[in-house]
Amino acid sequence: MKIDRLLSIVMLLLEREKISASKLAEMFEVTPRTIFRDIETLNKAGIPIITYPGAKGGIGIMDKYKIEKKLFTATDIIALLLGLNSLHAAMSSEEFLSTIVKIKGLISEEQIRTLESKIAIDPAPWFGKPTIKPNFDDLQTALINNRLLSFDYSDQFDQLTEHQVEPYRLVLKDIVWYLHAYCFTRQGFRMFKLSCMSAVKLHNEQFMPKNLESEPLDSSETKQVTLKLLIDESLRHYMAGYCGEENVQFYNSNKWLVRFPFIENDYCYGHLLSFGDKCECLEPEHVRLELIDRINRLMGKYNQ
């Protein structure tokens, strides 16, 4: 949209001494003639744009105006780039990529090189690189325009169910994307993992948004419980980072007690079992019994 381009041009000129019309045209994917029309529009709006003639000339904003009206510092822009890069790395949207390119124009090439050399964002796990490609265009349209969505959903037991929802927001937790939505089937707010959604359909029907202030992001069909774990010293630093130092207490010479947040699904049971004999679940009893059952079934596989 033109208004977006005009605002972006102003932000860019506030950060740079001057820039050529051809460079602006390339950055915003328009012709130089369009850029000159934009500059004329900005001048009419009272923003003092200056054009510098010659081979080293270009377009700039009056210095006094920059001092009074500067919008973002270099630190602000780098923070924006970090956030957008993390979203683009996880979601791979062309719109994010376009925005990143435009914002990079607001800081010097040296600052960009420093940023890229010091920080790398890779949301994929160490082992394997599963790519999640949700129908992002439909999700984005539904979220922006308050339109209903329907989809098939595969739960933790691989059972397929149909859902129609009011979508409210996308949530990135760890490296997993979720849709936070009001589900008509469950008559409440739920978190749906995007990788488990299929046959996504965008409806023309719109809805009146509900108040989200009292709706936590962990509203899901499986509620979180707190486990009491007894761990070896070798796991203490990991547990402190995962659960918080306040939830890890000394027990004896090389053992520690941990209050461990837990959701009762296959993924979380697998996470717990991955600690091997360095970790024992003491409470609650039903989780301890489920772990024993899973260990026995695993042993049965290998004893056949």
List keywords for this structure.
41% helix; 27% strand; alpha+beta; 304 residues; Arc Repressor Mutant, subunit A; four-stranded antiparallel beta sheet; 4 domains
Structure description:
With 304 residues, the chain is an alpha+beta fold. It folds into four domains: 2-69, Winged helix-like DNA-binding domain superfamily/Winged helix DNA-binding domain (Arc Repressor Mutant, subunit A, Orthogonal Bundle), CATH 1.10.10.10; 74-118; 143-206; 224-303, Alpha-Beta Plaits, CATH 3.30.70. Helices cover 41% and strands 27% of the residues. It has helices at 2-15, 21-28, 32-44, 63-69, 74-91, 94-104, 109-118, 136-145, 236-243, 266-273, 285-303, and strands spanning 49-52, 58-61, 147-154, 160-173, 176-183, 188-193, 197-206, 224-232, 248-252, 255-263, 279-283. A five-stranded antiparallel sheet has the order 6-5-4-3-7, with helices on one face. A four-stranded antiparallel sheet has the order 9-10-8-11. The longest helix has 19 residues, at 285-303. It starts with a helix and ends with a helix. 14% of the residues are buried. The mean pLDDT is 78.
Summarize this, please?
Residues 2-57 form the HTH deoR-type domain. This protein is an alpha+beta fold and 304 residues long. It has helices spanning 2-15, 21-28, 32-44, 63-69, 74-91, 94-104, 109-118, 136-145, 236-243, 266-273, 285-303; strands at residues 49-52, 58-61, 147-154, 160-173, 176-183, 188-193, 197-206, 224-232, 248-252, 255-263, 279-283.
- Give the overall average pLDDT: 78
Low-confidence stretches: none
What's the end-to-end separation, in Å?
66 Å
CATH C-level of the largest domain: Alpha Beta
The number of helical elements comes to: 11
The largest sheet, given as strand count, sense and whether it forms a barrel, is: 5 strands, antiparallel
Q: Helix share of residues? A: 40-55%
Q: How many domain units? A: 4
How big a fraction of the residues is strand?
25-35%
Output the strand order for the largest sheet.
6-5-4-3-7
Give the CA-based shape. Answer: elongated
From the 3D structure, determine the CATH topology of the largest domain.
Alpha-Beta Plaits
Structural class call reads alpha+beta
**Rg from Cα:** 26 Å
H/E element sequence: HHHEEHHHHHEEEEEEHEEHEH
Total beta strand runs: 11
Secondary-structure arrangement, i.e. CATH architecture of the largest domain? 2-Layer Sandwich
